[in-house]
Each structure stands twice: as structure tokens, then as C-alpha cells.
Design a protein that fits this description.
Layout (H helix, E strand, L loop, with lengths): L3 E4 L4 E4 L18 E3 L5 E11 L4 E9 L8 E6 L3 E4 L3 E4 L3 H5 L6 H4 L5 H10 L18
Parallel strand pairs: 3-8
Antiparallel strand pairs: 1-2, 2-4, 3-4, 4-5, 5-6, 7-8
Length: about 140
């Protein structure tokens, strides 16, 4: 994936690793952390973060899910709104592993559509209001 992912008059989403941006507090960088579902089961690993360049906020976790020994693994996006807690090695979310694994597969090409149907479908799938919706409140960092 190269550079920007979603662009409109208000925001551009970029993969943190593809930008010049950095995480201000290194302790808050969750890349490489295991994702744990609400039942305590491992769901995958945070492989990347999608950042809103204008607001400099994380909008999605890119989670490697499924597979065995890397075979059959696929990437999904999980809105940061699903995160309930973070510790030194884990990100806890309020969805089940099966729900995440069955979610829309991450496709950078679909994200470049200015009408945002892919992102809208992601938010509908997870049951959250899109970050561009009226009244949206960015979740605070879920400290331990």
C-alpha cells in the first residue's frame, strides 16, 4: 500500500508505516500487540494503524486474523472504538474473535473510493458511528 488511503475535504487515512508520522508516546504504539476478544481469546495481531492525517488520530487497527503459522491469515480493520483496554502486550476489544475474523477483508483499493462505502460498511459491521458522522466522539486512550 502506498501513501494515502482515503481522501476527502476533511481527512486522509494513511497507514502509519507508510507516512512520516510517528506515535507521540512510544508506549502507546500497539503495533505487534496481540488482540484479545471479549471472551479472552486471541483474535490476531495488530499489524498496522490507519491514521487520520488531518486530526492525527488512529481510526483503525489493521489486524492479522485467522490462519495457522501464517497460512490463511488475512487482514481486517477494526475501528479503534472497539478497543476497551491496552496493556504492554495486548489490545482488548469488545467483539468476539469470530466476528472479527468474519469481517470485511482489508482492501486498500476499496478504501480510495471518495464515497466511502467500504468504510461505512466497516462501521455498520462493527456497530459504531463513523468518525465523520455528526456527534461522533473519539474514544479516549484505554489505559490499563
Amino acid at each position: 500500500m502506498e501513501g494515502s488511503v482515503v481522501t476527502d475535504e476533511m481527512s486522509t487515512l494513511v497507514r502509519l508505516g507508510d507516512s512520516d508520522l510517528t506515535v507521540a508516546n512510544e508506549a502507546e504504539d500497539v503495533r505487534g500487540h496481540k488482540v484479545i476478544d471479549r471472551s479472552g481469546e486471541e483474535t490476531g495481531t495488530v499489524d498496522g494503524l490507519l491514521i487520520d492525517e488531518a486530526e492525527r488520530k488512529v481510526r483503525f487497527l489493521e489486524v492479522g486474523s485467522g490462519g495457522f503459522l501464517g497460512i490463511g491469515k488475512h487482514q481486517v480493520l477494526v475501528p479503534v472504538d472497539a478497543v476497551t483496554r491496552v496493556d504492554d502486550e495486548h489490545v482488548y476489544i469488545d467483539r468476539d474473535r469470530e466476528h472479527v475474523a468474519s469481517g470485511p477483508v482489508y482492501d486498500p483499493e476499496l478504501m480510495s473510493d471518495p464515497d466511502r462505502p467500504y468504510l461505512e460498511n466497516l462501521y455498520v459491521y462493527y456497530g459504531f458511528m463513523p468518525y465523520w458522522g455528526a456527534g461522533y466522539m473519539y474514544p479516549g486512550y484505554p489505559y490499563r
